Amino acid sequence: MAVKKVLITGAAGMLGKDLVKIFSSDPRYRVFGLIKQLQQNTRNIIYKEVDLRNAVALKKTISEVDPEIIIHCAAIVDLNACEENHSNADSVHVEATKILSSFKNETVKFIYISTDSVFDGIEGNYSEEAETHPLNYYAKSKREGEKVALENNKNSLVIRTNIYGFHTPPGNSLAEWAIKSLSAKKDINGFTDVIFNPLYTKQLALLIKDIVSKKNICGILNVGSKKPVSKYDFLRQLAKSFSLDETFIHPVQIKDIRMSVKRPNNTSLDTVKIRHIMDEEMPTLRDGLEEFAHEYPLNGFDKNNTIL
Fold this sequence. Notes:
Helix 5 (137-152) links the parallel strand 5 and strand 6. The model is unreliable at 301-308 (pLDDT under 50). The strands form four sheets. Strands 3-2-1-4-5-6-11 form a seven-stranded parallel β-sheet, with helices on both faces. 37% of the residues lie in helices and 17% in strands. The N and C termini lie far apart (43 Å). The chain has 308 residues and is α/β, with parallel strands linked by helices. Helix 1 crosses helix 7 and helix 4 packs parallel to helix 5.
């Protein structure tokens, strides 16, 4: 049996760690994870410490690994950081994408993890063919990364999505922040006018593996949970899944809040295409949150709702 080498950037991130775990559990794949700080290798996972902004080091690493599949998860998701340093955002979202997608571009499968934020959020329920109109620099640089990926490699797949999950050690993503705050009985706000269809990182990782294993899919693909939800309702359902008091969550509208970076309101995605390709429904938010709640206690949260 021929073993395929999979190169994953951002391998220690929310999605990256799940991709590493899922691909490495299958003997058909050998995983190489690019990370900022070196971690211990395991039998089927080799980590490499590479700064994606260092073009020479990145090219050298790709050539040494010689992968058949490249999944570019790494991103600068801090919106303020992207606004303050455009070149830094572009170095990861665009320049690194050029290098990664150009490697043996006639044969290598390249997957670029993008975002629903490439849309302005005025209409919602966006299809893959809908016109993009990013409102902030993070989204602008991610859109440029999409273009580069599709231009450089005929086998490229751009996945537009919005994810939730956890970091190891725990980080400060939306879900993690909410869990920490609610467990400490702190009041938090949830936007009633910000709509999305978020997917648990493990669910997305499993879908990506299925796509790579079974289908030769190229172009742009929307991937999200079955039904759109407001961030307020997302936080309420999250609280229920963790048996936390949802009365600490208060409904607000983003239009009434002064934000340092402009954000879109409704970035819900039409998932008809992937449902047709995979011949199955997208996971529900409830399914994802239940799995998230089951797995998160093992990573910084005990059964008594106490941060470890």
